[in-house]
């Protein structure tokens, strides 16, 4: 289980399509329940690390997107902080 604050943007967008920061609280999730790009990007990082992960479409949300707010078939940038 990972608990983190994060925001996700479609590449080139100015507004996040999903953000725990906007909801005001870190989000708990299982690494088995996230896109492949998150699993690859978080691998080897430790509690407290801050990172930005550029995720290509093939490791992202799929076509059509698996999440209602996520971009379909697009590159994404995820910013994560405060992993526990």
Q: Which residues sit in consecutive blocks of at least 5 with pLDDT less than 50?
A: none
The CATH architecture would be Roll
DSSP strand count: 5
| Domain count | 1
Beta-strand percent range: 25-35%
- Overall pLDDT level: 83
**Overall radius of gyration:** 12 Å
Intertermini distance: 8 Å
DSSP summary: helix tally = 2
What pattern of helices and strands is seen along the backbone? EEHEHEE
Classify the helix fraction into a percent range: 10-25%
- General form: globular
> Which CATH class?
Alpha Beta
Derived from helix and strand composition plus strand pairing, the structural class reads: alpha+beta
CATH topology category name:
Chitinase A, domain 3
- How does the major sheet shape up? 5 strands, antiparallel
Pfam families: FKBP_C (PF00254)
Enzyme class: isomerase
Family: Belongs to the FKBP-type PPIase family.
EC number: 5.2.1.8
Task: Sum this structure up briefly.
By secondary structure, this protein is of the alpha+beta class. It has a single domain, classed as Chitinase A, domain 3 (Roll). It contains 2 helices and 5 strands, in the order E-E-H-E-H-E-E.
Describe the structure.
13% of the residues lie in helices and 30% in strands. With 84 residues, it is of the alpha+beta class. The chain has helices at 20-23, 36-42; strands at residues 2-10, 18-19, 27-29, 51-55, 76-81. It has one domain: Chitinase A, domain 3 (Roll). It is globular. The protein contains two helices and five strands; from the N terminus they run ββαβαββ. The longest helix has 7 residues, at 36-42. Strands 1, 2, 3, 4 and 5 form a five-stranded antiparallel sheet that branches. A hairpin with a 7-residue loop joins strand 1 (2-10) and strand 2 (18-19). It is an enzyme of class 5 (isomerase). Keywords: Isomerase, Rotamase. Its EC number is 5.2.1.8. Residues 1-74 form the PPIase FKBP-type domain. It comes from Actinomyces ruminis.
């Amino acid at each position: 289980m990972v608990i983190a604050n994060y925001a996700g943007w479609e590449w080139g967008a100015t507004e996040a399509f999903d953000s725990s920061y906007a909801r005001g609280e870190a989000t708990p999730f299982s690494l088995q329940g996230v896109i492949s790009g998150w699993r690859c990007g978080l691998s080897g990082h430790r509690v407290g690390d801050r990172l930005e992960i550029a995720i290509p479409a093939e490791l992202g949300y799929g076509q059509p997107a698996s999440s209602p707010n996520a971009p379909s078939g697009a590159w994404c940038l995820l910013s994560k902080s405060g992993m526990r």
